[in-house]
């Protein structure tokens, strides 16, 4: 089986408040998505990389000069829809059901090739596939009306990152079934009764989401 990376890059970046899609904001000399794609380009086992843009995107080419992978302007209203459309495009490019797809957020621009390699090593002989994730560090509270109604058991809770690696032939129907609202691939796979493998990610593999995240990303990228 071959391995492909699929990069959803069609969000509007509402929470980041960057005055435009956050994936095109610049940190440490280039756009977030350019950093992301450079990391994926360094993963030798990938047979191809596909970026999913909004149909009206006018910024990608300038933001990612030198990118030579596939570009598909088929993004949807939610991340799940963008990924589902990207998977369909991968099929059009000849990807087979047994091929692996590694879905990675454009906004996780601190990605290191070694983490992708670790995920591939851990999952390529697995029945289901898996994802990078980290154990939750903080005590968790259940809220009800602005007050704590319960303390949630933290032990055994992980926060999901990307890449998330599943076979095309499993992920496509899983996302169709799961609908537009799921926020990651693993939850769609879980809904079919499968148990994705948890592979330890890195604190640095955070998703640029809020305004403060740009500064942190900048500092970390500059000191590499
Ligand atoms: N994404 C996408 N299509 C969408 C929504 C999100 O391809 N309709 C992508 C984003 O571009 C990002 C990744 O999915 O790379 C993770 O999503 P998120 O961090 O939620 O980004 P945004 O949706 O852009 O941000 P926000 O939710 O704050 O608006
Ligand atoms: Mg979003």
Automatic annotation (TrEMBL):
One annotated GO molecular function: 2-C-methyl-D-erythritol 4-phosphate cytidylyltransferase activity
PROSITE patterns: ISPD
Keyword hit for Nucleotidyltransferase: yes
KW Lipoprotein (keyword) present: no
Site (Positions MEP for the nucleophilic attack) residue list: 154, 207
CDD domains: CDP-ME_synthetase
Function: Catalyzes the formation of 4-diphosphocytidyl-2-C-methyl-D-erythritol from CTP and 2-C-methyl-D-erythritol 4-phosphate (MEP).
Protein name: 2-C-methyl-D-erythritol 4-phosphate cytidylyltransferase
Protein's organism: Caldimonas mangrovi
């Amino acid at each position: 089986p071959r391995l492909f990376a699929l990069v959803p890059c069609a969000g509007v970046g509402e929470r980041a408040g960057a005055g435009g899609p956050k994936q095109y904001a610049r940190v440490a000399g280039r756009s977030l998505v350019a950093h992301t794609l450079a990391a994926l380009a360094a993963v030798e086992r990938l047979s191809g990389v596909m970026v999913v843009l909004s149909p009206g995107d006018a910024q990608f080419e300038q933001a990612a000069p030198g990118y030579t992978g596939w570009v598909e302007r088929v993004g949807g209203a939610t991340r799940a829809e963008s990924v589902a459309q990207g998977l369909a495009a991968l099929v059009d490019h000849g990807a087979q059901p047994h091929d692996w797809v590694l879905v990675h957020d454009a906004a996780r621009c601190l990605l290191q090739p070694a983490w992708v390699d670790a995920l591939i090593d851990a999952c390529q002989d697995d029945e289901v596939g898996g994802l990078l994730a980290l154990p939750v560090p903080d005590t968790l509270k259940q809220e009800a009306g602005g007050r704590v109604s319960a303390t949630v058991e933290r032990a055994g809770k992980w926060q999901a990152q990307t890449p998330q690696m599943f076979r095309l032939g499993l992920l496509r129907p899983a996302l169709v079934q799961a609908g537009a609202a799921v926020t990651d691939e693993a939850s769609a796979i879980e809904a079919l009764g499968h148990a994705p493998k948890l592979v330890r990610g890195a604190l640095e593999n955070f998703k640029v989401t809020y305004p403060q995240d740009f500064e942190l990303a900048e500092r970390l990228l500059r000191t590499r």
